[in-house]
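Possible race condition, two jobs.
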Amino acid sequence: MRRPNFEKSVLEFEPVRQKIRTITDQLAKQKLPSEEREFVNAVVRYFPSGEPSLPQSSARNLLHYLDQNLTPAEIDMMLLKTIERHRNAWSDVCTAFASLKVAVASQ
């Protein structure tokens, strides 16, 4: 099985990671209403940090586990947990966005 070249991607996307870190740092310094702050925090939590040294990428994690010679049942469980983690994080984003919409509409 041919694996993606993560090292190339790490270098290729470094400018994007730097921009995201800068935006995140600037947003953290802003005084935002609670609904806006919660929405921003939920979006930031949804996306991995992009730090190459941290094994946060779902793709990297799955490739790592696939290299562990897991049984098909273990692979299924790992995939289900990954999907569930992403769904839960996206649900948090949607909930925060709904609260933000209500707050803006009531102003």
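Job #2 (started ~2 s after job #1):
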Amino acid sequence: MCRFKFSIEEYARLYQQSQIYGKELEVARKGNYDFDTYDIVMKYLQKAKRKVGELMLRRKEQAKVHLNGTSEKEMQRSARPLYLITY
């Protein structure tokens, strides 16, 4: 009897994670062969890190947009207190 119960999404995420780690270790091992392979691996790892970071930032910004199309920043700006003018 299995003590752990995961959803299909959790299994898929774990599978993806293990695939990434496996490839990462393989690339690191091959990149350690000589200076040329090291340069290639480092170049593309840095590029992948930058591209993934940009994509994650875009996704985070898209998630902040509400159903009515108003961004969280715009909503915070419009929620600022107004100064009352008294006569």
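The helical segments are 8-31, 35-63, 72-78.
Logs attached separately.
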